[in-house]
Amino acid sequence: MSAVYKAVISAADKVVPRGLRPLWEHPAGPKTIFFWAPAFKWGLVIAGIGDITRPAEKISISQCSALAATGIVWSRYSLVIIPKNWSLFSVNVFVGATNIYHLVRAFIYQQEQKKALENGSISDITSSEVCVTTISFKTSIHLKTSLILMILCLMVQCRVEIARTRFFKMKKIFSNRNLSLELRMQMLKCYVLPILLSGMEA
Predict the structure, then answer these.
(1) Which InterPro entries match (predicted)?
(2) Measured between alpha carbons, how far is 31 from 24 in angstroms, rounded to an integer?
């Protein structure tokens, strides 16, 4: 498979116009896996758009929460890595946006069902309808839990990036062999680890 891929890229390399060369030769361009992996992820976006016609009561809260979190986290990650991967960024923005839209639809539906029950506008509630309502309340709780986990994930990623930035700013000091290893470790514990581990005591 690798040989076939290299042969195709080699053949295409000869016919790429000069104006498209910067994109073609980009470290995250079509000649690398960093371009094609996000390209296949557009399938999730197409599936999400297709679910717009799906009834709100049939939306999977857990699935949409996971995909929304994935889209948000990887959108941020794609702009932090070197080189920046704009293909990865764009597809994850759409993945996050489509699934956040579905989560909003599901939340609105659950709130409408709750109000209808409280106002007594739903008559002759059967046991199956009660079961559906109970499930909707459980999924509402699950939605809140998923959102909390998503926020925590973003906070952790943000803290890692801040610690990473601080580390690279002090990289010359940490790699200075004129300083003892013990001193460098103490400086690492003093200036980098507190940023990374802040709040972990809880």
Answers:
(1) MPC
(2) 7
